[in-house]
Amino acid sequence: MTTIEAIRLAIRAVVANKLRSGLTVLGILIGVAAVILLVAVGNGSAKAVQQNIEQLGSDTLTISTATARGAGARVQSGALTMDLVDALTNREATPDVKSVSPVVTGAQGVSFEGTAHTVSQFIGTTPSYLEAVNDTVARGASFTDDDVRSHHRVVVLGAGAAARLFRDADPIGKQVTVGVARFTVVGLLGQKGGLTFADPNDVAIAPITAAQEAVSGYGPLNQILVQAVAADRVGAARSQAQAVLNEKLHVTNAANQPFQILSQSQLLTARSDTARTFTVFLGAVAALSLLVGGIGITNIMMVTVTERTREIGIRKALGAPKRTLLTQFLTEATVLSLIGGLLGVVAAIVGSQFTILGIHPEILPSSIALALGVSVAIGLFFGSYPASRAAGLRPIDALRYE
Amino acid sequence: MSTLEHPVIEVRDLVKTYGDGETQIKALAGVDLAVHRGEYLAIMGVSGSGKTTLMNILGCLDVQTSGRYLLDGVDVSTFDDRQLARVRNRRIGFVFQMFSLIPRTSVLANVELPLAYAGMKAADRRRRARAALTTVGLGDRADHEPNQLSGGQQQRVAVARALVTAPTLILADEPTGNLDSTSSAEVLEVLDHLNRIGRTVVLITHDHRVAQHAHRLIELVDGRVVTDEPIRRSPAGESYDGRHRPRTGPSSEAVPA
């Protein structure tokens, strides 16, 4: 019996029980689609991170409070204040620093004429921030240093936040309510590429003075963003900033600083590492569902073998060698899982057309080959027990079975 | 053929026991039997007499506990699974009771099956399977599926499948067990025909009227052969037996016991 005949026979057996085969195939389909799609999401997010590293440039540094290690290491003076911003702006102490932007940030409920939306990043800062993070004002204008000095309640909206609040209306000049205060929209930011799992367009940026006064209160800053004069001066800017901070915060133990300075690329590397870990985790979950699908195949093949015991007996009486029967049932299991695999690839390709968690999935061709290979392997592995049971039946026992 | 000098079946003191100790059952208690080429043999017995056990051993589906079984002069008791499969494939054609066709598979494919297991090429297989179907008078039903045929037709397909490999022995186990008298007659007619063209046929049945078709009758009681004699028949109407069942007379003459 040739391979083609064995496959034809297997397909006929699979088709004979459409519902049962369909459900089994569904198990494999979901597993394979999940694996391919999640790897694609991971791949897409890694690419987005890559693009952002290139887009942002590597000329910025982020200063934030260090996570406290133990009660004894908790240093009050670790809080970032506007004083530090002024100190860092001192040209003599930090000649390689182009700008220093204080940042207070948090999620804030914003509403406009009954439409409420929680902006995931409501940022209070100075105008230099926009340049440092490569944000561009697409329409209207940014707020100015004068707005900061005068505590003007104006706000620049990210494209995502604007779309959610205003839909089709023109936001420029409109007043939105942030918390209990009213802010006037003066500008809109251009669309920005996806970073990781948060929508970078869901932002609102206001003068830090107004933000603290009306929204966040006068607590410590969340971050201080430092832009170096050039990408190759980041190292110098970092040590200058470090020196200023050490002096201002009276740091004596260099190993236990109350603050940390990260370059933008370091941040992104950290984020892409997180993304990779997440992808591996999701991939493992997807692989589990593939395993469950495989067990489904064993289950359904056991049922098939039991149901066809008499047929097996007749085949044996007609002289079917053990090997032929083994091949027959293994082929059947493999056909089942391969159909599931192929449909899973189709489902994954369809699914990858959509944006998932703000990420555009990019399918790796190798993941398709891998998933198909794995689905064949699953058929062979999970089909082998039922198949060997079928092949090992004694002909008289099989013939007597009713 | 060198096998001509051997009987097709030669059985010496065949014993088959099931279970052990207290619950041991002796299904065959020492059977001696020789069947020669071209014979038409009926094995009769009530259920429990051991005829199915005997047929399983003769068909190489089961192995005896002791005694010798030579098929075509070859002792098959030493064969392993693979060799037994080959023997079943090449030397024995089975006709079981009902439901022995593979469902959802065309009649032609069913008849081709033993040839496929023998490793024959598809074109040759098809040709021989069609020829076998013509022999049983079903040449025009090759593309039907088993469930589209009557019981008698299905059984004739099973006969075609049994003879397609040109086996040494055709072994029919209650081939008419589930058939009405008309269908029985059809099937028995085909078996009669096969015997007339020289095939060795062993028919297992509990029905005297069916056994009448054979030329020699073996009767088993409690795992032993109690009768072994030729069947005499009236010259007329051989092929109508199943339908008109007139021949209880000769049967009782033939089996005086």
What does this structure look like?
- The complex is a heterodimer of chains A (402) and B (257).
- With 402 residues, chain A is of the alpha+beta class.
- Chain A has two domains: 3-51 and 271-400, no CATH class; 67-257, no CATH class.
- Chain A has helices at residues 3-16, 18-56, 82-89, 128-132, 145-149, 159-166, 208-216, 234-248, 264-307, 309-317, 322-351, 365-392, 395-400, and strands at residues 60-65, 97-112, 115-125, 137-140, 154-157, 175-178, 181-189, 203-207, 223-228, 259-263.
- A six-stranded mixed β-barrel of chain A has the order 2-3-8-5-7-6, surrounded by four helices.
- In chain A, helix 2 (18-56) crosses helix 11 (322-351), helix 9 runs parallel beside helix 12 and helix 11 (322-351) packs antiparallel against helix 12.
- Chain A is elongated, with a radius of gyration of 31 Å.
- The two termini of chain A are 28 Å apart.
- Chain B has a single domain (2-233), classed as P-loop containing nucleotide triphosphate hydrolases (Rossmann fold), CATH 3.40.50.
- The longest helix of chain B is centred in the C-terminal third of the chain and has 16 residues, at 181-196.
Short description:
Chain A is α+β, with helices and mostly antiparallel strands and 402 residues long. Chain A has helices spanning 3-16, 18-56, 82-89, 128-132, 145-149, 159-166, 208-216, 234-248, 264-307, 309-317, 322-351, 365-392, 395-400; strands at residues 60-65, 97-112, 115-125, 137-140, 154-157, 175-178, 181-189, 203-207, 223-228, 259-263. Chain A has a six-stranded mixed β-barrel, surrounded by four helices.
Topology:
The complex is a heterodimer of chains A (402) and B (257).
Chain A: H1 3-16, H2 18-56, E1 60-65, H3 82-89, E2 97-112, E3 115-125, H4 128-132, E4 137-140, H5 145-149, E5 154-157, H6 159-166, E6 175-178, E7 181-189, E8 203-207, H7 208-216, E9 223-228, H8 234-248, E10 259-263, H9 264-307, H10 309-317, H11 322-351, H12 365-392, H13 395-400
Parallel strand pairs in A: 3-8, 5-7
Antiparallel strand pairs in A: 1-9, 1-10, 2-3, 2-6, 2-9, 4-7, 5-8, 6-7
Chain B: E1 9-18, E2 25-35, E3 40-44, H1 51-58, E4 66-71, E5 74-75, H2 81-91, E6 92-95, H3 107-118, H4 122-135, H5 151-163, E7 169-173, H6 181-196, E8 200-205, H7 208-211, E9 216-221, E10 224-230, H8 241-244, H9 248-254
Parallel strand pairs in B: 3-8, 3-9, 6-7, 7-8
Antiparallel strand pairs in B: 1-2, 1-4, 4-5, 9-10
